[in-house]
Amino acid sequence: MTSPSSSPTTSPIPPVVPAGRLRDSEQPTLTLSTDAELRPWRPADAQVLVAACQDPDIVHWNRPARVSPNGARDKIAHWHRRWHDEQAAIWAVAGAGGGAAVGLAGIGDMDLRGGSAEFLYWLLPAGRGRGLAVSATVRISRWAVHELGLHRLRLSHSVANPASCRVAERAGFRLEGTMRSALLHADGWHDEHLHARIAGDDWPDPA
Ligand SMILES: CC(C)(COP(=O)(O)OP(=O)(O)OC[C@H]1O[C@@H](n2cnc3c(N)ncnc32)[C@H](O)[C@@H]1OP(=O)(O)O)[C@@H](O)C(=O)NCCC(=O)NCCS
Predict the structure, then answer these.
(1) Contact at 8 Å (CB) between 86 and 22?
(2) What is the rounded average pLDDT for all residues in the chain?
(3) Residue 2 CA to ligand 1 centre (angstroms)
(4) Which of 166, 170, 190 to mutate to test the pocket of ligand 1 (most atoms within 8 A of CB)?
(5) Residue 73 domain flag
(6) Across residues 162-176, what is the average pLDDT?
(7) Could you give the CA distance from residue 137 to residue 156 in angstroms, rounded to a whole number?
(8) Could you tell me if residue 207 is inside a domain?
(9) pLDDT for 51-80, tens place per residue?
(10) How many whole angstroms from 183 Cα to the centroid of ligand 1?
(11) Can you tell me which atom of ligand 1 is nearest the CA of 128?
């Protein structure tokens, strides 16, 4: 039986982000540039997820399970539930004005009480090489820190994935260390870099 002094309602440390901020709001569309935006996933984007789960680089680094078009629609519905359950905020990286999706960026493993979350992203080949992963990571970080109120954002990637390391550096996520044998990929266990930014860290120069 819980004693009154250990009851969560008497905790001396309040939640970093009070519950309800995502649950009671609609997921916003966030502008990246005149050409690109982050918008909520739509059922009509299902084929983009099917393609992502067949792209060799995304399969290798992000390890998604293969999905059928129906499975992809279920996944998109799941991400919308995760927003309202305050567990994750996942956007499509897309052309401006509701254009076609070319990738995914967002935060999962969200802990509103503790004030932290972890980044995830991938781009189909058509979206790569245009700085979209950096701009999406910075834009979502600004939203997560300034609008949602999170304190710490983590980003981890295999040490064998220099493109992802560069995205982290350019988005202002400092390297904090290497986690040994941290994630199992198709070719075995990989060491992972742990990067993070905390509220108050500088924002990268938009150029
Ligand atoms: C990683 C990924 C998201 C990068 O997105 P992107 O928008 O294409 O990134 P860019 O092409 O703008 O490159 C970002 C930086 O990485 C560098 N880079 C790209 N490929 C690289 C490579 N193979 N080796 C070293 N650096 C690389 C670019 O030169 C750029 O740095 P710069 O701005 O200093 O020149 C994208 O390549 C991708 O989805 N890859 C497959 C899946 C994946 O790796 N997911 C991440 C899992 S953690």
Answers:
(1) yes
(2) 95
(3) 50
(4) 166
(5) yes
(6) 98
(7) 13
(8) no
(9) 999 999 999 999 999 999 999 999 999 999
(10) 20
(11) 8
Three-class SS state of 135:
helix
The parent domain of residue 130 ranges over: 17-198
> Residue 173 Cα, ligand 1 centroid: separation in angstroms?
15
In a domain, 185, yes or no: yes
Domain count, the chain: 1
Determine the distance separating the centroid of ligand 1 and the alpha carbon of 20, expressed in angstroms.
35
User: In sequence order, what DSSP letters do the residues of 59-98 get, joined into one string?
Assistant: HHHH-PPP--HHHHHHHHHHHHHHHHTTS-EEEEEEETTT
Question: Is residue 203 assigned to a domain?
Answer: no
From atom 19 of ligand 1, which residue's Cα is the shortest distance away? Answer: 163
Both tokens of 72, joined, read: 């992809």
CATH number where 116 lies = 3.40.630.30
